[in-house]
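sanity check this chain:
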Amino acid sequence: MAEGHHGLNEPDEPRRQSGGLEGSPPAQQQAWPGREAQLTPPADHGEETYRGAGKLRDRRALITGGDSGIGRAVALAFAREGADVAIAHYAEHDDAEETLRWVREAGRHGVARALDLAESGAGRSLVEWAVEELGGLDVVVNNAAYQRESDFDELSTDHVERTFRTNILAYIEVARAALRHLGDGGVILNTGSVTAMQGHPRLIDYAATKGAIHAFTRSLAQAVADRGIRVNCVAPGPVWTPLIPATLERDHVGRFGGDTLWGRPAQPAEIAPTYVFLASDDGRYYSGEVFAPTGRAASR
């Protein structure tokens, strides 16, 4: 389940700086969990544009939700910066293979594993698998997410539990397991959301988990600083990923990102460099921070 994020309100007129999109995307829907091949227009993960500079040379990274969207863009960027990459995904096997193709084309080792991070113990199992496959671990990116639009009166307990198990309990479990393997200079990056700062009337449980992720990031950073481990969060605004048409109503997709300064959602390729910065030595002084590339003048 690759992460994607949500714009609010009605669109303003489109601005320049298209990034491959002019205004909001066409109204559309997909079956959950969504597929990259069905996105119209296709998302840009940096396939033709991202140029590495060796910032993550020989690092070993685990990325959850690495099959598509932000996760794929981060995997591609990490590989081009010199990292070996393990990705976790839910059931999007074709998307995962495409991500691995780009990782391997960059000359790096890439592996994928399908599992449901909402299941107890899945995060711990995933970390041990990644360590075995990569020979260790230096960077963890908690990025997988679950969401469904719903009126609050119709929000079931099962729905809420599914959202919390995937979006925050799995992040905690993965981080806890990873700390057994991360040494001085290790990095944990969590994907938050603008919804944690602004709320969302039809994604109340999702927004709550994202707020928890922001607090978890700040707290864990304090807890592991004496071990030389950095913990940060990237909290994007609307990003064009398969999660959007797979979880939002058709008309909402047609307005998606229209309320940003650019009048459109971000492309995953525009968000991935933030993860590279925070994972690399360039970000060595940063910990406990929430970076918010929201496309809005003020988000908190």
Notes: Residues 157-178 form the longest helix (22 residues). The chain has nine helices and seven strands. The longest strand covers residues 84-89.
